[in-house]
Design a protein that fits this description.
Elements: E1 11-14, E2 24-27, E3 29-33, E4 36-42, E5 53-63, E6 72-77, E7 80-88, E8 90-95, E9 100-103, E10 108-112, E11 117-124, E12 131-140, E13 151-155, E14 160-163, E15 166-172, E16 174-175, E17 178-179, E18 188-195, E19 198-202, E20 208-215, E21 218-220, E22 223-225, E23 229-233, E24 239-244, E25 250-257, E26 264-267, E27 270-272, H1 275-287
Antiparallel strand pairs: 1-26, 2-23, 3-4, 4-5, 5-12, 6-11, 7-10, 7-12, 8-9, 8-11, 10-13, 14-15, 15-18, 16-17, 18-25, 19-24, 20-23, 20-25, 21-22, 21-24, 26-27
Length: about 300
Amino acid sequence: MSGALSSDEADDGLGTAAAGETIARTDAHIALIGSLAVARALPQRKRRTIGAWCFLDHFGPAKVVEGDDPQLGPHPHIGLHTVTWLYDGEALHKDSLGSEQAIRPGQLNIMTAGHGIAHAEDMLWNTSSRTVHGLQLWIAQPHATRNSSSTFAHHASLPSSAHNDLDVTVLVGEVGATESPARVDSALVGADIVARGAGLVPLDASFEHGVFVVEGSAIVNGNDVATNQLLYLPPGHTSVDISSSDGAPARLMLLGGIPFGEQLFMWWNFVGRTKDEIDDAQRSWNSDDGRFGRVESRLSRIAAPTPIWH
């Protein structure tokens, strides 16, 4: 449902946020995946990670033309968790572990790649609207777990809480006393927020945070933030003040975590540490040597392109 990193977004080394960073607002980069508009808020040249969050694609809302469906055939990952969150539409996840799981709005799919996994995402159309809308996120695994075994989990419901006029659903980590059951390998938070007015969301002051506006517009700690903009908050904040603008509801995604202290090397669908690791993964996938397993899917297998440094 969202594309891999392109050549100009590939990363040749990134790490924790620089000391002394201040609040900053950035626009997502807009790209087309087939007929589908995708807004990529992470990674960008000026903001590579927020905690261990290293990728955020916002796709839709859009009506999809029949025959140009945003399907993703079998493709590989290493060194990350994928987090899929839908607002509209329905998708079928299949992976090389044998998992087969439909996901609907308000549900969470989280897949841990570790040493290597492959999966496919197939849009399901049960209505005539053919509308798709959601987020695809990646979390970089720390060194301790990045070569571990692969796993997949589906959470049909998630905990939520109200903070004045804000409805907060916790995808991963915790907000106040509300904690998600989803696996994470580092100190993180991810939460969907619907703002119908104003409210205050508690934060962990040791985290850096980002607030991304999915729909509408909002005022975040006094800053105007529009759709497909990300507001970065450095460590030190114990709460974030959010209010919808112009009296209309807004939807936002709160991401946060301990600044990631390891350098990453990101290319295509892989999150590693060196070019050699990426080369090995690319060769393994294209030669089908068994590292990533097989995905039973009607969709065509996607070949890994040649790395940009060759």
